[in-house]
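[#protein-structures] MJ: dropping Peptidase M14 domain-containing protein here for a structure pass
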Amino acid sequence: AQPFTYYARMAEINAYMERLSREYPDIVTLVTAGQTFEGRSINYVKISTTNFEDRNKPIYFIDAAMHSREWSTPPVALYTVHRLVEDLRNEDRDLVQDVDWIILPVQNPDGYEFTHTDERMWRKNRSLKASVSNCSGVDLNRNYDIFFGESNASQDPCAESFSGRYPFSEIETQNVRDILHAYLDRIQIYMNIHSYGSYVLYGFDNATLPANVARIHQVGASIGAQIDTKKLPEAYHYHVGNSYFVLYPASGTSQDYAQDIGVPFSLTLELPDFQNYGFLVPPKYIPQINEETWMGIATAARLSVLFY
Ligand code: 0X9
Ligand code: ZN
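AK: finished. structure tokens for Peptidase M14 domain-containing protein:
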């Protein structure tokens, strides 16, 4: 079975990306961005029908599993790769002709493996500074250099939302930062995929909004509306808006960081959880989430090309 049809382990996810880069060498480039605290590779793929480094197309950058217990998110990232590469349909050719893609299915491999082997509800990475605390892990979505430590973030290493001791203290966030800066001139969309709650979120967590908020809202609302046409009756409708108001304030997030450095459309997606499954979405829902979210991602890609 393909590793986006079930909750796969890191080895299976990496093997899938390796296989695609071998079978489609002209289109898929596998990049190992760095080694985690526990020595795992952080892998992403670049997808381009031309030469990715020709730098003439807008880029859509997607990452998932920043929070390790959010298991429904890597399948969405991998299914997106699948639909762009292995199962590209005629009506979707524009998506690779007009856009280059960077897809990082697991931002937090150490945490992700830990949720499979030890503690299903683990959220943070697994780094440990033994001279400071016995508690492991930094909340990667509090570790970016934007409003660092201001709200909904803890300075306590034992807390679920520990921000880290300073911005970008973690290899995982350094990697995403470096990708953003390496391609900043043409990253049109940064989409940070989480679960759960059915939200498209944007803007800054001091309750301010970017100058292009009307267009951001247009892209976000189009994603939500598109997904809603495909959603199951037991799923909530998507809510679209500024993260501060629609969800809660949170500082040091990658969404705010990417928006602040100039990515035109920086979005957080919170996938659906159906009734009250929370993070524990039954595997039977994986294909549904993949398909409906893919539709939203494709819609955003097309709009972002118009706005490029
Ligand atoms: O708290 C978070 O990091 C995200 N929610 S989650 O339940 N997946 O942990 C929300 C982040 C929303 N983005 C901003 N507030 N900027
Ligand atoms: Zn999350």
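MJ: nice. The beta strands are 28-35, 41-47, 59-64, 100-104, 187-195, 199-202, 239-242, 265-271.
AK: one more thing. The mean pLDDT is 97.
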